[in-house]
Specification:
- The structure is a single chain.
- By secondary structure, this protein is α+β, with helices and mostly antiparallel strands.
- A 5-stranded antiparallel β-sheet has the order 2-1-5-4-3.
- Helix 3 crosses helix 4 and helix 12 packs across helix 13.
- The protein is elongated and about 70 Å long.
Length: 292
């Protein structure tokens, strides 16, 4: 069984396990149940395929799968749009061109101009494998200094600052794993991406648990709460812009609600970004007063 087909079978099984006959809108088949989720035979009936055919799908023994069957499975499993796209990618990974693993990434000029235009807000540009391609000084002041070429995903799981600063770290980190799973289905031949996933799973029990849940997400706008060591809790919504000529690049902007305490604090944080020494509590102590 190939890695692609194994991933397809695991995803189908995980989505089947989360559905019960009642939630799927059918009568349970007679006989004792070993698991709470749907039986293979029940899902096969819902999808309009034979039980033997569906078993071959989960076992990775079905070489070709039509779009019609995939759509039927998606409806039977009640997949959302991202999960449906993920199912199609797992079933036909060869249709997508391999992503470059050797070319150095450079931030899209258009996204860089946008990031400059919103310099009063924390912002960064990420590329393939959640690699940081650019970030402004305010992002470093608000969250952490993420150097160009570093990995946002590695920061989330391997740097203790992430758990210290991000109040809703668990939600945000789980979304990171789900996004990496989505990326790997799009680019199954990217060895560097696969190695990143393997490293995170080996190093962090939460990453391993969420990976085994088989959840998938596209990078999306989410809320983020940050516990800043000097000014306290900050609340942002993350807005994401994708480069029109390179969908692997995304500009992420931290926006604050108008009139909120976070918005009122941003000019102060921006002044600290202009003078990094001011963000060091020891500098405040030496000057005789705090800035929080």
């Amino acid at each position: 069984m190939t890695r692609d087909r194994a991933a397809l079978g695991e995803f189908l099984r995980s989505r089947r396990d989360r559905l019960t006959p009642s939630t799927a809108g059918i009568e349970a088949f007679p006989g004792p149940r070993r698991v709470p989720g749907l039986r293979k035979e029940e899902l096969a009936v819902l999808a309009g395929v034979s039980p033997d055919y569906y078993s071959r799908l989960e076992q990775g023994r079905q070489a070709t799968i039509s779009r019609e069957v995939l759509d039927s499975l998606a409806r039977a499993l009640r997949l959302d749009d991202v999960e449906r796209a993920h199912l199609h990618d797992l079933a036909a990974p060869a249709r997508r061109a391999p992503m470059s693993t050797t070319t150095t990434q450079h931030a899209d000029p258009g996204l860089l101009r946008l990031m400059t235009a919103v310099e009063h807000l924390p912002a960064l540009i990420i590329g393939q494998r959640a690699e940081v391609l650019a970030r402004n000084a305010l992002l470093a002041t608000v969250l952490h200094d993420l150097p160009v070429g570093s990995s946002l995903a590695r920061f989330m799981f391997l740097d203790p600052v992430a758990r210290e600063r991000i109040v809703n770290w668990e939600t945000f980190a789980a979304t990171t794993v789900a996004s990496l799973r989505r990326d790997l289905a799009r680019h199954p031949h990217d060895r560097r991406l696969a190695a990143l996933v393997d490293d995170l799973r080996a190093a962090d029990a939460d990453a391993e648990r969420w990976w085994n849940d088989h959840g998938v997400r596209d990078y999306a706008s989410v809320a983020k709460k940050i516990r800043h060591p000097l000014v306290g809790e900050l609340e942002f919504d993350l807005e994401i812009v994708t480069a029109p000529h390179d969908p692997e690049q995304r500009l992420i902007v931290y926006t604050a609600e108008r009139g909120s305490p976070t918005e009122r604090m941003l000019p102060v944080l921006a002044s600290w970004a202009a003078d990094p020494a001011l963000t060091d509590p020891r500098a405040s102590d030496r000057s005789g007063g705090g800035r929080a």
